Amino acid sequence: MAERIKVMFSEEEVAQKVEELGRKISEDYAGKEIHLICVLKGSVFFVCELAKRITIPVSMDFMSVSSYGDGTSSSGVVKIAKDLDEALEGKDVLVVEDIVDTGRTLSYLLEILAKRKPNSMKLCTLLDKPSRRVVDVKVDYTGFQIPDEFVVGYGLDYAQKYRNLPYIGVVEGVE
Ligand code: 5GP
Fold this sequence. Notes:
Shape: globular
Largest sheet: 6 strands, mixed
Oligomer: single chain
Helix content: 10-25%
Distance between the termini: 8 Å
Number of strands: 9
Bound molecules: guanosine-5'-monophosphate
Strand order of the largest sheet: 4-3-2-5-6-7
Structural class: alpha/beta
Number of helices: 3
């Protein structure tokens, strides 16, 4: 069966949500500078749009991690494939994620980053699947809570496809 994408959140709905998050973050961090950390590759679209909606000074850095797992779920043992360029010491850090699923990858990552002594560290995710959580992770800013469905678009891929969709959808017709 050919794959079809069912829209879960339209381009307009995502844009409106990102604007809301940007406004809230700008208010919460008023008078400060914020250092955004983008976890490649899925978060790239989100971090760019979010940064444009934040009205306080922003700096950005990127890292890439791979999680060892059995293919269907992450183990939480994370290998840093590309580390950050800048130190975190003294910075107000906001880790920006595309989606929090089991929480394994993120909880391990946050532990590593906390050792670098940021002044503060919070987490912002566009999507959250709370029903899938295995490890407790404190999410400070959430775009949408979603059911246990595999979503694509707006940076999220299925076998490296669909990242470029401007909306978030569910792949149908996958065996
Ligand atoms: P966790 O360690 O929280 O289980 O793994 C989170 C990672 O799994 C995300 O950063 C993302 O790469 C991947 N992931 C989890 N759920 C989905 C989903 O519904 N769609 C896509 N494309 N990736 C997902």
